[in-house]
Amino acid sequence: MEFTIPWASLFGGMLLGLSAVVLLLFSGKVAGISGVIGGLINPQKNESSWRAAFVVGMITSIVFVLPLGFALPDVTDTNLLLAAVAGLFVGFGTRLGNGCTSGHGIIGMGRFSKRSIVATCAFMAAAIVVVLIRRLLGVL
User: Fold this and answer.
1) What number of CA atoms fall less than 13 Å from residue 52's CA on the CB side?
2) Mean pLDDT, the chain, integer
3) Is 0.85 topped by the overall pTM?
């Protein structure tokens, strides 16, 4: 595996941070994806429109970045049942952890939330362990 300069990741991270800051500054809302989606599933008064706009913006953003050379990953060889089960586990984990990686890692860490700092450290530790195990087993 060859390391390349991750310009797309850097640009994407900058856009995530910018969108989180803009949402927080102009509306006082937090851009944690699990919270945004959860608020659409169990809506509160006057909360659905901005959440729907946020989700529509995420989904349609590909239209704006395609001309810049970005593309969606190829998922034709993906086991959809396995992906659905993994998605359910992610949803369970976000409920259990009181937020998702975007909420804790981008918003919570930026606000110096102790809970988010602990959660983000746990996410990163788990990711490191998984990568190390995969490397030891020879699975890339």
Assistant:
1) 8
2) 85
3) no
